[in-house]
Amino acid sequence: MTDDRTQSRAEHPLPEEEAVGSDDFQEQAEAILLESDIREEEPEASAEEVLEHRLPEEEDK
Fold first, then answer.
1. Which long-range CB contacts under 8 A does 38-43 form with residues at least 24 apart?
2. Count of Cβ atoms closer than 10 Å to residue 29 Cβ
3. Taking a C-beta distance cutoff of 8 angstroms, is the pair 20, 48 a contact?
4. CA-closest candidate to residue 50, choices 60, 42, 58
5. What pTM, to 2 d.p., does this model score?
6. Burial class (CB in 10 A: 0-12, 13-18, 19+), 5
7. Burial state string for 16-28 with b = 16 or more CB within 10 A and e = fewer than 16
8. Sequence-separated (6 or more) residues with CB below 8 Å from residue 5
């Protein structure tokens, strides 16, 4: 994942993400983009399968 992509995503959260808020928009952007990349590579993957790709330290993000 490129830093530019993450930075841009963190600086421009979606309205619903902004309304809910975040302790760390940078971290949130990284998680969102990682899940998006996985879904792009594996379009048939379910949400549970996408979450399985996360590292243990990423599970609570």
1. none
2. 22
3. no
4. 42
5. 0.63
6. middle
7. eeeeeeeeebeeb
8. 33
Structure tokens at 23: 């302790």
Q: What is the mean pLDDT of each run of 10 residues along the chain (61 residues)?
A: 85 91 91 86 70 55 48
- Both tokens of residue 37? 């990349």
Are the CB atoms for 31 and 51 separated by under 8 Å?
no
Taking each helix axis from N to C end, the angle separating 25-41 and 3-11, rounded to the nearest 10 degrees, works out to 120
CA distances from 50 to 21, 39, 45 (A): 23, 7, 6
Helices in the chain by DSSP H: which ranges?
A: 3-11, 15-20, 25-41, 47-52
Closest listed residue to residue 57, CA positions, set 27, 33, 32, 37? 27
